[in-house]
């Protein structure tokens, strides 16, 4: 027992030091990723369940590392946040997404099924972007550089932003809404939000976390939470997007409960811009 205990410890120690080494390597190489063009955006469709001609996308960041291959944002975003590189990365996301909105609009012009007016592309924001008011002027500058109407831009934030940076976040997001942007709370249901609290936030949409949608068919609790979020949003005049919809049964439940929008592998995985024409031309959506 002693021996196997020692071996287990050694394996654990090896895995730990490997994880630390990998994190170090990524932290050291992250600053090269933008100049070396290893970062790119993929777009996942957000489908309207009530307006057939309304189509949106969420922009998700990808790191194609020359040796390690594709690295998940779940792994490198926290590294970027603790190393300060998150601001540079976020600038890249904002300008690339705005540039691509023009490209996606052009694609939609040839897709009679969808309205170009209703196109909305959402980016994920990090709390670090709210430490100053710069975000507003940055968004305005980049949107005018690419001649994009800000009604096409969505912004996703998490509930934790309103705990760490509440005053500045509310001020900045309200300014951006006045300019036409829509604001969504991401991963909704996993943090802490009371009805009274939520009604004071400058927010248009709640995105129900994937973990609830996952077990919507089998878990009474997850179904109850989903219904509560839908009622809550309805009473506050907010829209709801269900994340992580993977099958027809989940979609049927959400449609029946008058959920506004859905996103997930059932409709499409996140795609590169060059893959969009084929998806738009397919009858699957
Ligand atoms: P998120 O914002 O909640 O993004 C949704 C994640 O769920 C994405 O993972 C997406 O690929 C995945 N997903 C979508 N549909 C399904 C489905 O049907 N089933 C399953 N199992 N998964 C699905 P991804 O792209 O790996 O992103 C992970 C997280 O990284 C994001 O979670 C977001 O928090 C963060 N992130 C991604 N891009 C950015 C960015 O540009 N800036 C910042 N600050 N964070 C980002
Ligand atoms: Ca998101
Ligand atoms: Ca989410
Ligand atoms: Ca669950």
Largest sheet: spatial strand order = 1-2-4-5-6-7-8-9
**Mean pLDDT figure:** 94
Helix content: 40-55%
Small molecules in complex: ligand C2E, calcium ion
The rough form would be described as globular
Radius of gyration: 20 Å
Order of helix and strand elements from N to C terminus: HEEEHHEHEHHEHEHHEHEH
Oligomer: single chain
- Please summarize the sheet with the most strands: 8 strands, mixed, barrel
Separation of the first and last Cα atoms = 57 Å
Tally the helices: what do you get?
A: 11
Give a count of the beta strands, DSSP E runs of length 2 or more: 9
Structural class label: alpha/beta
Strand content: 15-25%
Q: Which regions have little confidence, pLDDT < 50, spanning 5+ residues?
A: none
Protein name: Bifunctional diguanylate cyclase/phosphodiesterase
């Amino acid at each position: 027992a002693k021996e196997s205990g020692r071996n287990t410890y050694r394996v654990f120690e090896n895995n730990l030091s490997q994880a630390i080494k990998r994190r170090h390597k990524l932290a050291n190489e992250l600053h090269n990723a933008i100049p070396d063009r290893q970062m790119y955006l993929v777009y996942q469709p957000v489908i309207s369940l009530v307006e057939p001609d309304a189509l949106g996308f969420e922009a998700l960041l990808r790191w194609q590392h020359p040796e390690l291959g594709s690295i998940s944002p779940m792994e490198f975003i926290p590294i970027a946040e603790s190393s300060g590189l998150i601001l540079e990365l976020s600038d890249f996301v904002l300008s690339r997404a705005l540039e691509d909105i023009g490209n996606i609009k052009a694609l939609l012009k040839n897709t009679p099924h969808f309205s170009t007016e209703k196109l909305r592309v959402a980016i994920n924001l990090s709390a670090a972007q709210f430490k100053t008011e710069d975000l507003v002027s940055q968004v305005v500058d980049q949107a005018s550089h690419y001649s994009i109407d800000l009604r096409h831009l969505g912004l996703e934030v998490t509930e934790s932003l309103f705990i760490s940076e509440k005053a500045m976040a509310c001020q900045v997001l309200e300014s951006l809404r006045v300019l036409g942007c829509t604001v969504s709370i991401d991963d909704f249901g996993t943090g802490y939000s009371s009805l009274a609290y939520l009604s004071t936030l400058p927010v248009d949409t709640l995105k129900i976390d994937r973990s609830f949608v996952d077990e919507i068919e089998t878990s009474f609790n997850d179904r109850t939470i989903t219904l509560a979020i839908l009622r809550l949003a309805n009473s506050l005049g907010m829209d709801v997007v269900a994340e992580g919809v993977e099958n027809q049964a989940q979609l049927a439940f959400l449609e029946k409960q008058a959920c506004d929008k859905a996103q997930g592998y059932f409709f499409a995985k996140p795609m590169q811009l060059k893959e969009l024409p084929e998806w738009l031309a397919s009858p699957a959506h």
